[in-house]
Amino acid sequence: MQTSWQWHRRLLHNLATPEKSVLRLNLDETSIVLNHDGQKGVVTSPADNRVVLVNKKSKQRGTLTHVVLVCDDNEIQPLLPQMIIGNEHVLRVRDMNELAPDIPKNVFLVRAKSSWITVPLLIVLFEMLRKSLDAKNVTKHPVLLMDACPVHLHAHVWRAARRQRIYLCFVPASLTWLVQPLDVVIIRKLKAFVRAHYKRTQVQHATACVDLVHVVRILVRAIAKILQGQTWNSAFDDCGYAASGTGVKSQIWSFFAKAGCPNTAVPDEQPSNEQLLNILPKKRKYDLSALLWNVPVQPARQTRAPACMAVGATLGSVQPATGGSALLVTRSGTSSTGSAGSRDVPIAMGTRSRSRQLAQDSATGHASAPTSDSLQPCPSWTLPPPDNPHSLPPKRRLILTPPAPAAPTPRTP
Fold this sequence. Notes:
Layout: H1 2-15, E1 22-33, E2 41-45, E3 50-54, E4 63-71, E5 82-87, H2 93-99, E6 107-112, H3 119-135, E7 141-146, H4 155-163, E8 167-170, H5 176-179, H6 181-205, H7 212-227, H8 233-238, H9 250-258, H10 273-279, E9 314-317, E10 326-330, E11 347-348, H11 354-364, E12 376-377
Parallel strand pairs: 1-7, 5-6, 6-10, 7-8
Antiparallel strand pairs: 1-4, 2-3, 4-5, 9-10, 11-12
């Protein structure tokens, strides 16, 4: 545990200057169940003074994944992107169209083949985070604290964080319940708000079944009320992730004392590679050179986004009626409106149409590297090929060339 504190504290000392301070961030995933029915019986609401008899449980099953992102600055917290992921069997296209007007700009509703967080979605989240900070001229250096989830440890994720100038730090495995701010304080309050308003919705509608649209709306209200309505500066200090370890909770010290580790002094020097490997899961290979420790002399050169962005699913956008942020992730051959047989428009991160790129190159006289612009539609066969497609994870390669037309059959005389 001392290595993780030393890692984080070294970043704070390296990055903090009189001109620029450090923005402490914490990212974690949590499941949001769609059915909070404990058992049959009576549901009451003390606020409304109403009583509803629930004769049967709701048949709705399934979960959503909420990728929670918090910081220690309540003025920057409304800018941070929040991602809600649902699989295609739970989150339907008509639900997304109905929810699109109610989704704030910083909340992204994603419909994918699976509700689990994936490497492509995490890379998209990093780019959204950087663009949200740059749009409001936030000059703080983001230091992101994450757990040792396999997706967080992927090489593409570390390189994407380096490109977006995000400084990573990891909590040791099996200790997130003790020292990660989201697990210790924040997620518990978020889920308590969702459960309470789920019961209140049952009372107001006099029914046991609360559909998915209402659950997502409750979660959006919880994001505005809990995540953006409170200050989480003390949560980072209590867990030991501060410039000094004077504000660590007494429960953490007592835990280490019972475990036979009375010496909890944190050195000031940068941890060695051996120390970093000790807090990361074993039997994995890590590219520690991809981690940032100091402010780069110049911004990292923008490179092509990994081709696994469009793996197993294509990203398409649902245009909301009155604004909002909704991402529709469907399989090939299904349009954004849910009609099968029509080609949808995949969205690639940081890529341009090959014809547009060739036109710009001919006008300037030299080849230019693709910039990391916002998500923009382009046909899947116009994506530039990856530098090394064999470096992608297995079963995550994308065929970037259109199928060759069938040869005409010769007519027999």
